[in-house]
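User: Teach me something about this protein's shape.
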Amino acid sequence: MNKELPSDIKAIFDNPDPIIWNGFWLACLQKMLDCEHSLNIWSKLLAQINVNHKKNKRLSLKKYIKWEIKAFVAKTIKLIESSVSQEMFIIKIQEYLELKNLTLHDQDLIELYRDLNDN
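Assistant: First, the predicted structure itself:
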């Protein structure tokens, strides 16, 4: 786990449930937590999730962050697992982010895709 990860991300994935996070999913998660490119993604997502929480306070901020971050990670890993092209990965993640009222630059997603596919 990258030492520079935001504390919220560290807390969410400090002790991942081995029932969910094993094999391919755990390997992808570890890459997402280790790679330098992801630091920018985590920071951007956390800032936007904090803003979105102000409009949706059904969950505590801590639970809302955990919910949204885990959902983003799951969506990302599912797409990588299904071997989509880089172009399709970007399209599908951008569609997902739009539904969640989140945004990331395509370049962030290209770097994430490459890191997860060891390119």
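Now, about its shape. The chain has six helices and no strands. The chain has one domain: 7-116. If you'd like, I can walk through any region in more detail.
User: That's plenty for now, thanks!
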